[in-house]
Design a protein that fits this description.
Layout lengths: L3 E2 L76 E6 L19 E2 L22 H10 L16 E6 L7 H6 L7 E4 L1 E2 L10 H12 L8 E5 L6 E2 L11 E2 L14 E7 L17 E4 L10 E4 L32 E5 L2 H18 L5 H11 L28 E2 L5 E2 L10 H9 L9 E6 L5 E3 L7 E6 L5 E13 L5 E6 L5 E5 L10 E8 L10 E8 L6 E13 L2
Parallel strand pairs: 2-4, 2-5, 3-4, 5-7, 7-10, 10-11
Antiparallel strand pairs: 1-6, 8-9, 12-13, 14-15, 16-24, 17-24, 18-23, 19-22, 19-24, 20-21, 20-23
Helix pairs in contact: 1-4, 4-6, 5-6
């Protein structure tokens, strides 16, 4: 399937599961006449949320941000860290980006499989998509240059990869994951209205990237989780375009490996957005915004001029900032209406750049560990939730709320370990000494078990595998072979020896698929636990109409010895 942009995916309907969350504070927006070294900085709530409206009709909650605090004053600005944005065309000569962009490191896959920029203009002016330009601005827009806002890491070295606009191929997919890059940002993905396979050679490259690149410390791959809390089945089959499915970030199988940091999206009140895809494979949450009209969106760079991009003089249904009617954006070079995990991903990548500046010896696993250790447990009273469309099964928990595992880590399929805390992560990185040891895998198959799955039963069927190793868990991956005409009815849970339960597939998802064949699911809910003991799979069929069989399953532990 062709990769596409996550801010354009999904049906962004109201998320009833979060409708009763944190109340919105009274709006507080700086006056439009504000001037300073970065005129838009005070409006960028994702870095410092004072309850400002960010040009929308309502405000957020004071303090609901990534806690940049005084990191800039302490000298943390991403200086020297190389971040690649693999995306659409990027306006690398934008007034708020050009000083940080490295043309030699950038790649234009419209030219060749390995990518090289044309000599005349290093971006494709015929393409009006501003996505890559906005993503790059969140990471590394220049600070203190009297225009626009600023990025999380305003002195990072930026490389633009024009990959999404190209004729995508496996060779190009692999190439955009390699090279002398510290951090790769991927704000793209595929619709998870079915199981989306991944080529093993790409996984081999990601494994190589985290093992060999960055002088053996591993490149950091940050990826958007997806915008499919609700999605349209028309993305898979036009005949079903009036039907809705519920997304699962695991179904894009590249996400079922531990090599990427998946970022979910939060509102300006630090609760789940209406669109962010859930999944047991999430790692972190970061601001993603909501439309910028009725509620604050994310502010970033846009294609220059009022004729293309997000901000245009003839834009309809937008705010005055994005039509060029506001004095701070009269040239339409910026936008305030961004929403999507496409933007929580670069906010995460920018934070990682600050961490690597603070301590360049961090490995990719150290980065993940620090993010998990310092994440903020947002929406703390979020409990178990029911099926968003009402298709529940008596006696079954559709989606679990915050769960504390035996190692003390809190985890939620909406938020991962919680919202990123930039200051806490950077300060921990500064003095961090790695203790994770050597990463090892241990795969154990069940063999053929052929267990019939009872229909419409919350009890389902269970089967256990005894771990053959004593690891501290860094990730748990399972592979299942289930015969069922409509896997959309199936729910899957994993329970650790310590009793922690992780929902890896939710019932009645509405996805289009037949059977689950070697389908992978990753869970981060067991991070830090011991592998020792029995690990149990539970498979549930939430419909009385079709029968199925759990033929076999495997469990793969990623971890290190105690």
């Amino acid at each position: 399937m062709t990769l596409s942009l996550f801010d354009l995916l999904g049906c962004k309907m109201s998320n009833s599961a979060t409708s009763t969350k944190t109340a919105i504070a009274a709006p507080k927006t700086p006056p439009v006449t504000q001037v300073g070294p970065d005129p838009l900085l005070n409006y960028m709530w994702h870095m410092d949320n004072t309850g400002q409206t960010a040009f929308s009709a309502s405000g957020g909650t004071s303090g609901a941000d990534i806690n940049m605090d005084n990191l800039y004053d302490l000298g943390f600005d991403g200086n020297g860290v190389v971040v690649a944005v693999s995306d659409t065309n990027i306006e690398v000569d934008h007034e708020d980006l050009s000083a940080n962009v490295s043309i030699p490191l950038s790649r234009n896959y419209l030219n060749s499989s390995s990518g090289s920029w044309p000599n005349n203009k290093p971006w494709i002016s015929s393409n009006t998509s501003a996505h890559g330009t906005s993503v790059m601005g969140l990471i590394g827009a220049v600070a203190n240059n009297a225009v626009g806002g600023r990025g999380i890491a305003p002195k990072a070295i930026l490389a633009g990869f024009n990959f999404i606009d190209s004729t995508q191929s496996l060779s190009r997919l692999i190439d955009q994951a390699k090279g002398a890059i510290d951090i790769f940002n991927y704000s793209y993905g595929t619709d998870t209205c079915t199981v989306v396979p991944v080529d093993s050679t790409y996984i081999t490259q990601l494994r190589y990237g985290v093992t060999i690149q960055r002088s053996g410390k591993g490149s950091i791959y940050v990826k958007a989780a997806g915008n499919e809390y609700y999605g349209s089945l028309g993305a898979c089959n036009a005949a079903y375009n009036t039907f809705t499915y519920l997304g699962n970030a695991n179904l894009e199988q590249v996400n079922a490996y531990p090599y990427t940091i998946l970022a979910a999206a939060l509102t300006s009140s630090s609760v789940l957005t209406s669109y962010s895809s859930p999944g047991s494979n999430l790692w972190i949450s970061a601001p993603g915004g909501e439309n910028g009209v009725s509620a604050p969106g994310i502010i970033s760079t846009d294609l220059s001029g009022c004729s293309k991009g997000y901000s245009k003089s003839n834009a309809t249904g937008s705010n005055t900032f994005d039509t060029g009617a506001n004095a701070l954006n009269s040239n339409c070079n910026y936008t305030s209406t961004l929403e999507g995990t496409s933007f929580s991903s670069p906010i995460t990548a920018g934070t990682v750049a600050l961490m690597l500046q603070a301590n360049s010896s961090l490995t990719w696993r150290d980065v993940k560990h620090i993010l998990a250790m310092t994440a903020v447990k947002v929406d703390p009273t979020s409990g178990h939730t029911t099926h968003p469309l009402g298709n529940d099964l008596a006696g079954h928990i559709y989606e679990r709320g915050w769960t504390q595992n035996a190692a003390g880590f809190w985890f939620h399929n909406w938020y991962g370990f919680g919202e990123i805390d930039a200051k806490a992560a950077v300060l921990m990185a500064q003095s961090y000494i790695s203790h994770l040891g050597v990463l090892t895998e241990s795969l154990t198959p069940s063999g053929t078990i052929s267990l019939a799955i009872p229909d419409n039963s919350a009890a389902g069927i269970t089967h256990s595998i005894t771990a053959p190793v004593n690891f501290i868990v860094e990730a748990v991956q399972i592979s299942v072979n289930i015969t069922h005409a409509f896997p959309s009815e199936i729910g899957i849970e994993i329970t650790s020896p310590s009793g922690t339960v992780s929902n890896v597939m939710n019932i009645n998802s509405g996805i289009l698929a037949t059977n689950l064949t070697n389908t992978l699911f990753l869970s981060n809910a067991f991070y830090g636990e011991s592998t020792v003991g029995n690990w149990t799979i539970k498979v549930i069929d939430a419909s009385p109409t079709d029968t199925g069989t759990l033929n076999s399953w495997k469990i793969n532990f990623y971890g290190h010895t105690p």
